Amino acid sequence: MTEHRGETFVMEDGDQLSFSTFVLGLASSALIHLGEAPNPDTGGETVNLVLARQSLDLLDLLRHKTRGNLTAEEEQLFVSLLTDLRLRFVQKQQQGK
Fold first, then answer.
1. What secondary structure letter does DSSP report for 66?
2. Are 37 and 92 in contact (CB under 8 A)?
3. Among the four 3, 20, 40, 97, which has the fewest Cβ within 10 Å?
4. Helix, strand, or coil here: 29?
5. pTM (global) more than 0.90
6. More reliable by pLDDT, 1 or 71
């Protein structure tokens, strides 16, 4: 089977991308931009708060646009991820001051 590499996960042909996996991929981007996870291109950890904020805004937009269409598990995933990522973002902002 052929593998397709994403930013932080490997999918084999025939694997179906779930909504939760999609959301986790977006959250992974935020973690990379917060310097909390290594950049898959460089292997290094760098902080880019502008891109981290864009990832958070995209997740928040997606959450609002899908409200009422999510399962309880998907809604809880959004709440948990956004809370954690927002706290990490604020911590990085404060470290930069």
1. T
2. no
3. 97
4. helix
5. no
6. 71
